[in-house]
Amino acid sequence: MSDTRLNGNRKMSAPEGKSPFLIGVAGGTASGKSTVCKRIMEKLGQAEIDNKQRQVVCIAQDSFYRDLTPSEIAKAAKGQFNFDHPDAFDETLMKTTLNDILAGKIVTIPTYDYKNHALKKNELLTIYPADVVLFEGILVFYFPEVRKLFHMKLFVDTDSDTRLARRVPRDINERGRSLDQVLNQYMNFVKPAFEEFCSPTKKFADVIIPRGADNHVAIDLIVHHIKDIVQGRPRENGRVESIERHYYD
Ligand SMILES: Nc1ncnc2c1ncn2[C@@H]1O[C@H](COP(=O)(O)OP(=O)(O)O)[C@@H](O)[C@H]1O
Ligand SMILES: O=c1ccn([C@@H]2O[C@H](COP(=O)(O)O)[C@@H](O)[C@H]2O)c(=O)[nH]1
């Protein structure tokens, strides 16, 4: 009997050259994008699996913040740089990396250091070919050339009071900010940029998830859809193969 779950029984990561199902997950700051991705991975049985063995991987758009110039670094230190504007990202690198992932290549991406407003270029994440890749961030649907790469687009829609109430403790406890810094940045940059650049991209979503990770029904439906699609996808040779037949013991 075949197991219909995506699970960790497979011995090797997907072969190079295999194109994953690419899912974009957008939403305002602290809307619960990472938490929704974590739930999706858990429900697909991927939470405890080693990076190299994973069939489902998650990448953050924060890994594609561009390098700042010296004067921008000085601004960032004073809370005067706009990290919520599309210009803060390296669109070309985002596009190239996602295209490499879609071509089934192994890619390496840096993680982001919020305390120093810089990429940790000596701490690289290796992304091995997977069946499903989630790409989450505030502006993942903003850039048309990036947006068109997604097979499925999710928008996590959590109300702005809740988002601010979550962002304040997170930024103080995890991102090294003071209350004043968080509130000033929010009023000067985060809120206006959300309204101008992020919120309008909701119209591109295939599925809007109200209340984020609290919305178990929406997450279950999405997980079922991902399973159906991934397990029924025609492979390179044109045959329809299920994931378990391809990879399980
Ligand atoms: N449903 C929820 N209930 C309570 N806290 C939540 C919920 N979803 C997320 N959080 C918390 O809110 C903060 C932001 O969530 P996160 O998933 O990191 O958002 P995003 O990736 O959109 O910035 C985190 O501290 C997280 O633990
Ligand atoms: O150096 C930085 C880089 C980014 N930010 C803020 O992060 C959020 C995006 O991350 P979420 O996890 O989606 O909240 C964005 O609103 C930036 O303002 C930062 O404060 N400093």
From TrEMBL:
Residues 22-217 form the Phosphoribulokinase/uridine kinase domain. The gene is 109543145. Keywords: ATP-binding, Kinase, Nucleotide-binding, Transferase. SUPFAM superfamilies: P-loop containing nucleoside triphosphate hydrolases. Pathway: Pyrimidine metabolism; UMP biosynthesis via salvage pathway; UMP from uridine: step 1/1; Pyrimidine metabolism; CTP biosynthesis via salvage pathway; CTP from cytidine: step 1/3. InterPro entries: P-loop_NTPase (IPR027417), PRK/URK (IPR006083), Uridine_kinase-like (IPR000764). Its EC number is 2.7.1.48. It comes from Dendroctonus ponderosae. It is an enzyme of class 2 (transferase). NCBIfam families: PRK05480.1 (NF004018), udk (TIGR00235). It catalyses: uridine + ATP = UMP + ADP + H(+); cytidine + ATP = CMP + ADP + H(+). Belongs to the uridine kinase family. This is Uridine kinase. It holds the Pfam family PRK. One of its GO terms (biological process) is UMP salvage.
